[in-house]
Amino acid sequence: MYSFTRLCVQRVACGLIRQDKRLKGHAKWQNIAHTKALKDAEKSSLTLAFSRRIKVAVAEGNNNTKPNENPKLSSILDEAKKKNIPMATLHGLLEKLEKSKTKSQTEFVDFRGPGGAYFIVKILSHNVVGAKMTLNTLFRKSKCKPMEGKSKGALFEHVGCIITEHKGTLDSATEDAITVGADDFVCDPTVLPKVKNQLEAREYSVLTADDEMVPKNTIELSEDDLKRVDFLIEKLGAIDEIVSIDHNIQLPEEEVVENKN
């Protein structure tokens, strides 16, 4: 899955770094400014990513903004707190969502893109029909073919994914995961908060817990098709209503390594 967070970090950081290069002064100050620019960009993009996840959790939880009544929302707020995300910003967002008269909803849209690759994007909007019209315009310009929901079950599996810090051996971790209802730390997305809480009760430090569309099979694309995919991802990322993008592309090894860092 393409990481909006990482893409955002890279773009914002590059812009800040270009500003830093205009500054003249001691090399030590330049290094400090450079490091601070990267950290500020990463923190800003992480806050944006958590804001999107909170909006999705509220929409998928019957627009309930109360963490004690919305397990998915509670789980995301706990994760944000551990990563030192400004909680005042997130609580302010929840207040706005609570007062909003227009309630948002989520919907998956799948399509076939460059090189025959399949994509699934998640929309979060109070006007899903309008958002899908925007997508259809992009599909026509990019020569993509809407799949009308055909690839969701056939080509992708909707799962809850949990990432924890290392604890014990792989065998013991796998056994613990199975005990709490997960298979290699992957579970049914509807029970994700419950599984997360049970793992934490077993003293696992959960780094992230979210649902994803995992491809059942992947395909390799040519250099030209990968460039077309990059252009398409950039256009999709510019649409505010899109909160996630999943695909079945086997990324080049160096790009996979970069996304893991």
TrEMBL record:
A GO cellular component annotation in the UniProt record: mitochondrion
Residue ranges constituting the TACO1/YebC-like N-terminal domain according to the UniProt record: 28-96
Pfam family, one: Transcrip_reg
Entry superkingdom: Eukaryota
Domain TACO1/YebC-like second and third: 109-249
Family, similarity comment: Belongs to the TACO1 family.
Full protein name: Similar to Teth514_1449: Probable transcriptional regulatory protein Teth514_1449 (Thermoanaerobacter sp. (Strain X514))
